[in-house]
Every structure is written in structure tokens, then in C-alpha cells.
Amino acid sequence: MKKGVIFFHSNIQNLYPKRWVDKCINSTILQKERDFKIYEINYGGDDYSVFDGIDHDQEREFHSKKFSNHAEAMNFIIDRAFSDGCGVVFNTNLDDFYTSDRIEKQM
């Protein structure tokens, strides 16, 4: 079953310290379960990705599209993952970090 991990944010540089976001990103790309695709949307209207400058080999799809609120952006990126064939989608919070077996346990 295809798995997706979603990231959605707006003006994240102004919300959380970079070290928190980096810790979240690293805990996601260092999962023991490697068979997943990352879907990211920046709904603030700029082209900033939280993955900018981070070296990884995880498959990823990035969107920059203006939405008026968090719910619209979340629905867009979830729909994008399911439309791409994902049978399951994992949410992330950019101020959290995850154990390396998160995907395995949740599956």
C-alpha cells in the first residue's frame, strides 16, 4: 500500500525555531519504514519549502499555492496524496518530532 506523509505550512519561519522544524524533518526522513512519499504545501504564497537545504533521498512533491486558511490547505494536500494513490496518509506537526518507528507502529 502506498503511504504518504503530509506537511502543510504558511510563514513557518516566523512561527517556530528552525531547529524544531529541522528536528521534525529529520525524524521523518530517517524513518525505518522507507516506502513513503512526502507531500508538502506552503499555503502562504511563497516558494519556501521546509526541505530547502536538507539532503535526503525521499520522494517528495512540493506545492506553493495561496489558501485563506489552514483547513483548505490541509484538504488540498490530503486530496493530492489520495489522488496520487496513497492508501494511508500520515499527518505531521512541524513543532513535533517522531520516533524512527512511527510509520511502522501506526500501520
Description of the molecule:
- The structure is a single chain.
- The protein has 107 residues and is an alpha/beta fold.
- The chain contains 3 helices and 4 strands.
- It has helices spanning 18-29, 70-83, 102-106, and strands at residues 3-9, 37-42, 60-64, 88-91.
- Strands 3-2-1-4 form a 4-stranded parallel beta sheet, with helices on one face.
- The longest helix has 14 residues, at 70-83.
- It is globular, with a radius of gyration of 13 Å.
- The mean pLDDT is 93.
Short description:
By secondary structure, the chain is α/β, with parallel strands linked by helices.
Q: Could you tell me the radius of gyration in angstroms?
A: 13 Å
Q: What is the succession of H and E elements?
A: EHEEHEH
Pairing-aware structural class of the strands and helices? alpha/beta
How many individual β-strands?
4
Note the overall shape.
Answer: globular
**Could you give the distance between the termini?**
10 Å
Largest sheet: 4 strands, parallel
Can you tag this structure with a few keywords?
single chain; 107 residues; alpha/beta; four-stranded parallel sheet; 4 strands; 21% strand; globular
Write the layout of secondary structure elements.
Layout: E1 3-9, H1 18-29, E2 37-42, E3 60-64, H2 70-83, E4 88-91, H3 102-106
Parallel strand pairs: 1-2, 1-4, 2-3
